[in-house]
Amino acid sequence: MRARAIASALGLFTLSCALPAWLPAAPPAGSAIVSFGSFSEREGALFVAEDQGFFRKYGLDVKLVHVRSGPVGLSALSAGETQFYNGSVTGTTLGAAAGGLDTVFIAGLVNKLTGAFVVNPAIKSPADLKGRNIGVQSMGGGIWMFTMLVFDHWGLDPKRDKINFRILGDETVLAQAVANRVIDGSYLGYTFASLLERQGFRVLADTAKLGIPYQGTGIMARRSYVNAAPDTAEKFLRALVDSIRFIQEPANKAQAMKSLAKGLHLPRVEDAAEGYERMAAMYDRRIYPNVDGIRNAIRLLGTVNEKIRRLKAEDLVEDRFVRKIESEGGL
Asked: Which of 22-31, 77-86, 178-187, 314-323 shows the lowest mean pLDDT across its residues?
């Protein structure tokens, strides 16, 4: 059953999310470390905010740190080693909350499931995924969650349909694994998906067109941290709002593409063209967290985990900073 695949992943990350409830002293006012586990155009708002000086505009000293996976990012957030985590609602996120971590979404930047499911050209329909090897970054993490939501939509059950998950790495690694036919398919961001499509690989689905409710990329923090440092949290979100506006202004396309290519370590700026177009369209200027999307993830994972089933989506959201910014005409 699909539930067994979910339970297996839950077993892996529940231990990693038995995280300490203490919070070390907050960093100096106006400074913050932001981690992110994904590596695609979904992180573009961070790359542009850093490269174009929007964090500095608000007097913030922000350091961006790419981590191996969601569990690593949540562990760092729990330990107070980072102040914000840029990620999605996943098994790791919900497992941490169910385990007592006071993590909340303070903003939702991408409030829907986005990205592409890319496969070997021989695979022509979802039914052809049965018995295949599918790559993920980690069990319970974002790419696994995206994949499970798509499988749920298609009526696929990894256990029943003998679909094997292979844990490989971030999207750069997954894209290479698809290209080298190490795996038969993987969820990928649009930037890497477009590069593979040019090489003849098939985009089985643009997940944004499937209409799956989901809290995509958002900003997470500990409630205790934002209560202790509300000014930093507010300024951080204002910088991201400015970054999204900059990205969505056509006159800034060249600069935004350059920042995206730099952030993704692409060899050529033009390789970021597809990612830029998708990035500009996917971001929501009204950066409220998607409560319905969080609720949908709780529904999927709550089938095999009582603690997650008892979570309330509303309790995982702290939107006072977004509400303040909007009330002042900032959105």
From this structure: 22-31
